[in-house]
Design a protein that fits this description.
- It is built from ten helices and 14 strands.
- By secondary structure, the protein is of the alpha/beta class.
- The strands form four sheets. Strands 5-8-2-1-11-13-14-12 form an eight-stranded mixed beta sheet, with helices on both faces.
- The longest helix has 26 residues.
- The protein is globular, with a radius of gyration of 19 Å.
Length: 298
């Protein structure tokens, strides 16, 4: 194959990809998509710079008329700072036990490190992203989940006004998941849970979780058992029989609640794959695991 033929073939492939994306661009124009960028995905950025690729995906979604909202975690980064300070992380059912010192560490990491990092990556491509936390404008109200977990919060209310204002002005909100109660006490809140609650409050078309696994498996040790599509009821059964455990429980629970409360689809994707958001949203095949309320919605 000559160089000219190779170039022509590559150009034809790009053109066909754009044509394949057209119906999805039309379908999702004006739709809200909440993307939870997990701390594990962020920690995995390395040679191919997954963060930069993620930022490109988010900006492209915005430029074709979608309304992306980014919610981020920072678990590995919080654990790393705790280790430097001589504190040993402790988890119960995927939730970090959070004493008064740990909630301040979480606040420093999420608002002072991870949030600015994401905002800066997106804003390489223009003045799009605005970083906020759940404390801003009372966005995320919380209460103690369990006294044994310390300052771990449950979402009691989402006030989406500040998000509406930002996306109506064509900004991309990037949200750190620190919430507060009526007295101003800060709480560390599981980012999966917050993403689901925000997707519900915003009436989102899609809720997308980017993490460091390719999706859900029926057998954790067997890559061939990847689940492409699953209903909320089927996910409930997998939690009940112990197939889904640990840190996946909050993610799955928020997927289930979201699709049962108006979010059209939820997706669990591998954030380490180049342009995984575009592959899911704008191609026929899709990628990862898709969660729906019932099979009748297919």
């Amino acid at each position: 194959m000559t160089a000219g033929t190779e170039a022509s073939t590559a150009a034809a492939l790009k053109a066909s990809t754009l044509v394949e994306a057209l119906p999805y661009i039309r379908r999702f124009a004006g739709k809200t998509v909440v993307v939870k960028y997990g701390g594990n995905a962020l920690a995995g950025t390395s040679e191919h710079d997954a963060l930069a690729l993620f930022a490109e995906d988010i900006v492209l979604m915005r430029l074709v008329g979608m309304r992306p909202i980014v919610v981020h975690g920072g678990g590995p980064q919080i654990s790393a700072l705790m280790a430097k300070l001589g504190k040993e992380p402790e988890f119960v059912d995927g939730l970090r036990v959070t004493d008064r010192e740990t909630v301040e560490i979480a606040r420093m990491v999420l608002k002072g490190q991870v949030n600015p990092q994401l905002v800066a990556a997106i804003n390489v491509h223009g003045r799009f992203a605005v970083g906020i936390s759940g404390v801003d404008a009372g966005l995320i109200r919380a209460e103690t989940r369990n006294p044994e977990l310390g300052f771990v919060g449950d979402v009691t209310e989402i006030n989406p006004e500040v998000i509406h204002r930002l996306i109506d002005d064509e900004f991309i909100p990037v949200i750190a998941t620190i919430g507060s109660d009526e007295q101003g006490q800060a709480y560390n809140i599981n980012a999966d849970t917050v993403a689901g609650a925000i997707a519900e409050a915003m009436g989102a078309e899609k809720l997308v979780y980017l993490t460091d696994i390719e999706g859900l498996r029926r057998d954790v040790s067997d890559a061939a058992s990847l689940i492409r599509q699953i209903t909320a009821a089927e996910l409930d059964a997998m939690v009940d029989d112990g197939t889904i455990v640990g840190g996946m429980i909050p993610k799955v629970a928020s997927c289930v609640q979201a699709v049962r409360n108006g979010v059209h689809r939820a997706h669990i994707l591998d954030g380490r794959i180049a342009h995984v958001l575009l592959l899911e949203v704008f191609t026929d095949d899709g990628i990862g695991t898709m969660v729906m309320n019932s099979r009748e919605m297919e």
